[in-house]
Specification:
It is a single chain. The protein is an alpha/beta fold and 445 residues long. It folds into 2 domains: 194 residues, Rossmann fold (3-Layer(aba) Sandwich); 229 residues, Rossmann fold, CATH 3.40.50. The protein has 15 helices and 14 strands. A 6-stranded parallel β-sheet has the order 3-2-1-4-5-6, with helices on both faces. The chain has a 6-stranded parallel β-sheet with strand order 11-10-9-12-13-14. It has a two-stranded parallel ribbon with strand order 7-8. 47% of the residues are buried. Pfam families: UDPG_MGDP_dh (PF00984), UDPG_MGDP_dh_C (PF03720), UDPG_MGDP_dh_N (PF03721). Keywords: NAD, Oxidoreductase. Belongs to the UDP-glucose/GDP-mannose dehydrogenase family.
Length: 445
């Protein structure tokens, strides 16, 4: 497939963000070159095989690869100049909890070497405020070439990425109107919904605000859960009832808060503020609340195990290992279920932990998660367990009511549910053996 460089797009980084974007852009009529350092992902991509679960992606990739509109490589090809380069590499936190920029810098150097004059360079990775101007721009300037630069942050939801790339407003941040219009024209090929902001920094901040706001909301819900537990009140009842017919309150239900965005973006937000001498107390407090939840809840679980004289080597079933279940994903990045597993291993060494996830097959789970016996189905994981922990919100984990689960378990066992899957059920004989976040105190004495 031969096209002009104006219609050729290079997407650097074929992780979740890059691969979904590259595929949708190929379907929109661009010639897309995806660049990824990991050879096995390049090989899979060129075979039209996604390396993660995303509804509709495999079929879309097959169409794009077959038509020649998408191909992958391990490096930016200088011999095929592109009109646009989009940086979508990861920005994980380092061991000190600060955002890493080495992958952004490396990708930018590749772009600087390969780009033709007047190329459009778009930063789509989530970055600390000022990175596009202070890190990416100087590397590009050192090439001596003219270029245009924009910041267009990714905001898709795992499990709905292909739909949202066509539906969500695309944020376009640049310093001048001509560049905003140029980047807007590119993304208008995907969606009619374009939102222009006046600077690179405004776009960087916007993305961080979106995810930090959600983190703060979830932290408040978890605070409500702690309070309700202290007063022997059902937090799920309080939160759900408070919303009915009252639009001014919309507190989410409590639960584990993690994932590749929420576990790091508030930290990036806070570190950005610290660079200007500002402390974001609410942001930092929310992270403390959400990050300590595995430790606090496992402390309750182990105390209840001692109260019920459950043996140290008893079987524990951990259900739902991906960082979320709705929309369904197989993504283990930032999974709080793994944090729960780590806390269990410290609190109860020698426990026989069996894990099941409705999306991740047992072989993959056993390769990616240490210290577990991976199970192919829920019944195998639960059968004979003394403790069942429901750790994500996949609907399949709420299909078997507590009475059914308890019937498969050891006598005296109990269920701990992080997601209140059964809060709408009338209490039965199982109530003394079922515990959920925000509803535990009254049955523990």
């Amino acid at each position: 497939m031969s096209q002009t460089k104006e219609n050729r797009v290079c997407v650097i980084g074929l992780g979740y963000v890059g691969l979904t974007l590259a595929t949708v852009m190929a379907e929109a009529g661009f010639e897309v070159i995806g660049v990824e350092k990991r050879p096995h992902i390049v090989e899979l991509t060129n075979k039209a095989q996604p390396h993660f679960t995303e509804p509709g992606l495999a079929d879309a990739m097959k169409r794009a690869i077959a038509s020649g509109s998408l191909r992958a490589s391990t490096s930016v090809d200088n011999s095929q100049p592109c009109g646009t380069y989009i940086i979508t590499v990861g920005t994980p936190l380092n061991s000190h909890g600060k955002p890493r920029l080495d992958m952004v810098e490396a990708a930018t150097h590749e772009v600087a070497n390969a780009m033709p004059e007047n190329a459009l360079v778009i930063v789509r990775s989530t970055v600390q405020i000022g990175t596009t101007r202070g890190v990416v721009m100087p590397i590009l300037q050192a090439s001596g070439k003219s270029f245009h630069i924009a910041m267009c942050p990714e905001r898709t939801l795992e499990g709905k990425a292909l739909l949202e790339l066509r539906k969500l407003p695309q944020i376009i941040g640049a310093d001048t109107q001509p560049v905003r219009d140029q980047a807007g024209a590119l993304f208008r090929r995907l969606t009619n919904s374009i939102v222009q902001v006046s600077s690179l920094e405004a776009a960087e901040i916007l993305k961080l605000v979106d995810n930090t706001y959600r983190d703060v909301q979830f932290a408040f819900a978890n605070e409500v859960a702690r309070l309700c537990e202290a007063f022997d009140v059902n937090a799920s009842e309080v939160i759900a009832s408070g919303k009915l017919g009252y639009d001014r309150t919309n507190v989410p239900l409590p639960g584990l808060v993690g994932g590749p965005c929420l576990e790091k973006d508030p930290h990036i937000f806070a570190h950005s503020a610290q660079s200007r001498g500002i402390s974001l107390e609410m942001t930092q407090a929310s992270r403390i609340i959400n990050e300590r939840q595995p430790q606090e809840t496992v402390a309750f679980i182990t105390k209840l195990m001692r109260t019920r004289a459950i043996a140290p080597g008893a079987k524990i079933a951990l259900l739902g290992m991906a960082f979320k279940g709705v929309p369904a994903t197989d993504d283990l990045r930032g999974s709080m279920s793994i944090k729960v597993l780590d806390e269990l291993a410290q609190a109860q060494p020698g426990m026989d932990i069996h894990a099941f996830d409705p999306v991740i097959d047992a072989d993959t789970l056993s390769q990616q998660v240490c210290g577990i016996t991976a199970c192919q189905d829920l019944q195998t994981a639960v059968r004979g367990a003394s403790v069942v922990i429901i750790a994500n919100n996949h609907p399949a984990l709420g299909e078997h009511p507590p009475a059914t689960l308890l019937a498969m378990m050891q006598p005296g066992g109990f269920i701990y549910d992080y997601w209140n899957h059964f809060s709408d059920l009338s209490a039965g004989g199982w109530i003394k053996d079922y515990f959920a976040v925000g509803n535990v105190s009254r049955r523990t004495s």
